[in-house]
Design brief:
The protein has about 475 residues and is mainly beta. About 0% of the residues lie in helices and about 60% in strands. The strands form seven sheets. Strands 9, 11, 12, 14, 19, 20, 21 and 23 form an eight-stranded antiparallel sheet that branches. A seven-stranded antiparallel sheet has the order 10-13-22-15-16-17-18, with no helix packed on it. Strands 26-37-28-33-34-35 form a six-stranded antiparallel sheet, with no helix packed on it.
Length: about 475
Amino acid sequence: MLTSSTDATLTSGATDSYFYRAQTGEFLSVIVRGTDNFDPIVEIVDAGGRVIVSNDDYMFPNSRDALIEGFVAPASGRYEIRVRGYNGSDGDYTLTILPGYSDLITEETFADDSNWIAISTDPVDEATFFSVEEQGILSQDGFNRSGLAIGVMPEGATYYLHTTITNIDSNQGWRAGIIFGYQDVSDYYRLLVNYRGAWQITRVLAGEAIVVRDWSIHPQIPPNNTAFSLGILVNRTTFDVFYNGQFIGRSESDTFITGEAGLVAETIDVIQGNAVVSFDNFVITRPTLVNDQPIIPTSIVGNGTNATVRELEQRLLVPTGGDMRLVLSESFVTNTQVGVSRFAVGEPATNFAVGTRVWWAADETAVNGCGLVVRDDENNNYVLAFVDSAGGSGLSERMGDEFAQNVFEAGDVVAPPHDLVVIVRDEAVYYFLNGQLHGTLEMAIRQGNIAEASISFDGSSASCQFTDTWIWQWE
């Protein structure tokens, strides 16, 4: 996708709607910048009318702009982007939709080729690159040859690269894609798609191709398709790949060092092979930082265990490179005494994310709760993230016989089931309930068990059912 920007005026009490068709796993950002003192709110709504993610004042009090950073589409289909004013206010605004993250570094439309350099990997069969009618044309001839075009340098350790290929001319077969981590002609990474409908990531080192992710067939990639978009999210040493917007796979390389980025056109192993690839755009985005730190989103999508973990990584809530330590399909915790009953499901850990879905009996009349406990040690110190049957939710730190910190919201939660995600990252604890951020707190670093919990406020029986509990841990 190209970046899209729209200027508009919102009248008092109104809501503006924009529609966008996304593919499963598509990764994009939406930012609404108000003019003067206008305070916008932005929401992304699915085909069923459910608000999936939303934001207001991502950088308050320095800015009232609204930003959804790194939205991950849970399914292919049409999505509605809604813009409204806080408390029904009116004003002028600019809505911008970007591939990947919200900080646009490069948007190359190939109006000219002055910033691009064609690089040949063979002294005889040279590559050529030129622009015509706002298309970048990369041409390569020969037997199994690679032609490169380098033109931009990404910034930072995390960024998103995107290009659109409009046409590929070849006499017998081709490979085309994106170059990244380019140090020199003998040291770079390349993401390739071929005419057979497969994709691959390799590192070229000292002129030799080292396979990072071998050729993989994907049903989203039709054979001989010569018009498509290709994207890659570089998150330190992890690479997420997108074809026509849809997430198709992941790979990683511990030796990756960021470098220049560009385009690649390759011939296959046939005599007098040729490949002429037309690129329509090349976009680089990176995360917006506040005080040199990524933005903590106010909502997440949450779309199953693996998809949720990938979303947490892509939205920089957790680093890449973790391991799934637990997947528990079903469990129960019952409590018949006043207080919190805990059932340990994970060993002591410092940095991790844990998620689950909780239920309780529909006929319970007493107010009880269910939740997750983290950093539970032998001295009765722990943090509890919970939701209760009266519609409340909270995040509380227990220190011995007392609760030292409490974040509580009353009466705004619907009936079960409820999806809970708790992220523990050094001193910080983040609690997402049904995709919405319901509490954060800071605590002294300590290790302790991870547990499921049942809460009885008055001593009546409290029984909680947990399904699809998972723990993702990193160093």
